[in-house]
Design a protein that fits this description.
Layout (H helix, E strand, L loop, with lengths): L8 H12 L2 H8 L3 H15 L4 E4 L2 E4 L1 H22 L12 E6 L1 H18 L4 E6 L5 H7 L4 E4 L8 E9 L1 E5 L12 H6 L1 E5 L8 H8 L5 E6 L2 H9 L4 E5 H7 L6 E4 L7 E8 L6 H13 L1
Parallel strand pairs: 3-4, 3-5, 8-9, 8-10
Antiparallel strand pairs: 1-2, 5-12, 6-12, 7-10, 7-11
Length: 298
């Protein structure tokens, strides 16, 4: 296959479909019509001899061949864009760039509204895509440009990933208003005697609070595991279980239920939050502007 015979715009279409999960959102991202995107995909399918994407419900799922190509294509396109943009001034008032940020759901409700308020005024054509963070792939995604930023706790990353400590906050414990044992205060013995709900995205393992307890040779009984802090808060409001989480998460999900919010009784470290980006965008004017904006509101 001769590179000179290939329309490189086809790979831009491929990357958009892969990242957006469909022809319609890809067409919006590229500012092209849906027929134009479909035609480009048909040409690329013929060129590579593979369907590349197959429809499943409302999404276009990549084939194994597409997954194999995706990282390389994204890195090449990101590298080309960086080379072309190096040294060019960045004007947020006219830029049409979309920044992709991996974060936990709990941060979306505080970070996104504040950022959109600023963007609507100062950078009306800039978009934000908030996506679920996958800690296993975060470094590769930052390097390839699939992510511009990631927001999470301390992660084991290489020196190629830059990070900035945003803030640290204590853990608190939620208990329902009419809890038969816990009323207004909580000591360690009572905490350990209760059943607990653990918020985690993992199928196995325990939380940072359990690590802190184990250092003091103490353990607690986890009765419920769930994935969302809001769900844990609702469980607490309808049971005698306790839930432990960062204070900002607790304040957010507890606005309606009004559960008791108590200091964590053990010797637990504060939970640190970091902003991550790759070294290859360290000096990029657009990226520098955006990460400073994000840091203001986290």
């Amino acid at each position: 296959m001769q590179l000179s015979q290939i329309d490189l715009n086809l790979f831009t279409v491929f990357d958009a479909i892969y990242r957006e999960g469909g022809i319609t959102p890809a067409s919006k991202r590229l500012h092209l019509s849906q027929p134009a995107v479909s035609h480009a995909l048909a040409r690329l399918r013929e060129l590579l001899g593979d369907p590349l994407f197959e429809r499943h419900g409302n999404e276009m799922q990549p084939t194994p061949r597409a997954r194999e190509l995706a990282s390389t294509i994204n890195q090449l396109l990101s590298g080309l864009a960086k080379t072309l943009n190096d040294g060019l001034p960045f004007d947020p008032s006219t830029s049409q760039r979309t920044f992709t940020v991996a974060m936990r759901e709990a941060h979306e409700s505080t970070l996104l509204p504040a950022m959109i308020e600023v963007l609507s005024r100062d950078a009306p054509a800039i978009g934000i895509a908030a996506v679920r963070i996958d800690r296993r792939d975060v470094e590769d995604d930052l390097q390839s440009g699939a992510l511009d930023l990631a927001l999470d706790i301390a992660l084991p990353v290489s020196a190629d990933v830059r990070r900035r400590r945003i803030h640290a906050e204590p853990l608190v414990v939620l208990a329902r208003k009419q809890h038969p044992v816990v009323q207004g205060s909580l000591d360690l013995a009572t905490y350990l005697a209760m059943d607990h709900v653990l918020v985690t995205g993992r199928r196995h393992g325990r939380g940072v609070e359990d690590t802190a307890l184990q250092r003091g040779n103490a353990t607690r009984h986890i009765k419920v595991r769930c994935q969302q802090h809001a769900a844990a808060n609702e469980v607490v409001s309808r049971s005698d279980l306790l839930a432990t989480m960062p204070r900002s998460y607790a304040e957010q999900v507890n606005r309606v239920t009004g559960n008791q919010m108590l200091d964590f009784p053990g010797d637990a470290p504060q939970l640190e939050l970091f902003l991550y980006w790759h070294a290859n965008v360290e000096n990029d004017p657009a990226h520098t502007w955006f990460r400073e904006l994000a840091a203001r509101f986290i």
